[in-house]
Amino acid sequence: MGRYRLRDRIAALDPEKDHLEIYQLSSGREFPWDYTRALEFALFRTYCVPSISKLLAATGEFRDRPQRRYDDTALLMAEMAAHGYDSARGREALKVVNRAHGRYAITNDDMLYVLSTFVYDPIDWLTRYGWRPLHEHERLAAFHYYRAVGTRMGIRDIPDGYEAFHAFKRDFEERHFVYSATNREIGRYTVELFAGWFPRPLRPAVRLGIRGMLDDRMLRAFGFDPAPRWVGALASAGLWARARALRFFPSRRESVLGKSQRNRTYPGYPSGYQPSDLGAPLPPADLPAEFRRSSRQGQGHIDMT
């Protein structure tokens, strides 16, 4: 019963009123590794949208500083989750995100779509590979948490219901997941980023494994050749085996959110760092005018650049 004590605690909380506490328990103690992997793939998924990948390609950040862009995004989102979006560090992280994206012409629908992937991609991952089934309160709390974050980022027209937001995500992908050269460019930079985390002899296998984890719609949008079926099956089998083994582990005593993790850009973070130390530099001087935000447009949101 001790293995499920946090699930029982979550079941006793209100998924709307207590969404931050539930999200912290779920992402920081119950499924920390899975949330990290799922959010990596969630961001990867957004690069299947040509309007998003075109901007990322224009900034040159994924070409020149992919690791820093990954670390900035991960750490800023972690600051909000660990301390709360209305805490001092959470507000500072939001300020960095909004300032960075206030420089770019990004549509509200693109922002809304990126936000939706943060809700539903981890839920989809954990439905397949979680060591236990997600409690309904965890699903609803993730929606309410990111809805609150999105509101503070100035994202408009966020659906007010879990199913409505999920329907928006599905419809957006059906309409906007199409191949473009910039999708492929940013996708390749991201695959190389992930592969670079492993010793050189393992990198070909990592590249193949990543393609094996992508669904058909993503493969088409990136223009990637599919991996042999056995690659995806082997990866899924490994994740299922891990999930079954974790059922016999004790509950995590402390949350990993906001704790010092191995970080390639900011060693020892958060010790000695503030959220204001993170974030992308000013847009390049040669950034085409179509990507620059005019004074008539609203402010920016999620740190994609």
Automatic annotation (TrEMBL):
Protein name per UniProt: Uncharacterized protein DUF2236
Annotated source species: Actinoplanes xinjiangensis
InterPro entries (alphabetical): MPAB, MPAB/Lcp_cat_dom
Pfam families per the UniProt record, alphabetical: MPAB_Lcp_cat
Top-rank taxon: Bacteria
Single GO molecular function: oxidoreductase activity
Ranges of residues in domain ER-bound oxygenase mpaB/mpaB'/Rubber oxygenase catalytic: 57-242
Annotated spans, Disordered: 259-305
Chain segments annotated as transmembrane: none
